[in-house]
Amino acid sequence: MTQTILYARVSTSEQTLDHQRTQAEAAGFVIDEVIADHGVSGVTTALRDRDEGKRLFDKLREGDTLVVRWVDRLGRNYQDVTDTIREFMRRGVIIRTVINNMTFDGATTDPMQEAVRDALIAFMAATAQAQAEATKEAQKAGIAAKKDQAPQAYLGRKPSYDRKALDQVTDMLTQGAGTSVIAKAVGLSRQAVLRIKADPVHAEVVLGAWEGREA
Q1: How far is CA 166 from each of CA 160, 200, 206, rounded to the nearest angstrom?
Q2: pLDDT tens digits for 67-76?
Q3: With contact defined as beta carbons under 8 Å apart, do 200 and 170 qualify?
Q4: What mean pLDDT comes out for the span 14-26?
Q5: Please, what are the domains in the chain?
Q6: What is the pLDDT of residue 188?
Q7: Pairing outcome for strands 4-10 and 33-38
């Protein structure tokens, strides 16, 4: 019996997971099961290396439909996303996205349709990676500018977060998680999360200054 499985990469909140399922169902999907990874960075962790991502690879069978909000949920970069989609298609799994209702199916044998499908997969994966890289570069530029303007301004009180915590907060904010949920998951005060949210570049510079001082 075939299944329709929603894979979500969420913060840690069941509410956030419910929101993703609600979005999928509102788009017309009938979901049989939800598989979700919590608190995992999609930028640094391949799908196969995520706890529930491994289970997804084990579970999907020919004829199943895999639903994701967008293709960036399936990997950490262009190569990872395209490899994952193609492997699932070779297995006979249909991949569908909530955003734009895209469908990727390996059943076609028409070479022209295959070419169009593969080009679209490549374009979407490349776009997702480009957007992530552009965000990182903009943040780096902002950090460098602030350091040049007032380097001593960032050597005040030591921040309450370390590198791992800052990365997790930033990732969860990108996914749309609430500040209270993030604070509880990461072990920071809500005020600390709000400060990071208000000025992530400043938060990065503060931490970088202290890392340099303690090196």
Answers
A1: 10, 9, 11
A2: 998 887 887 7
A3: yes
A4: 79
A5: 4-128 (3.40.50.1390), 150-214 (1.10.10)
A6: 93
A7: parallel
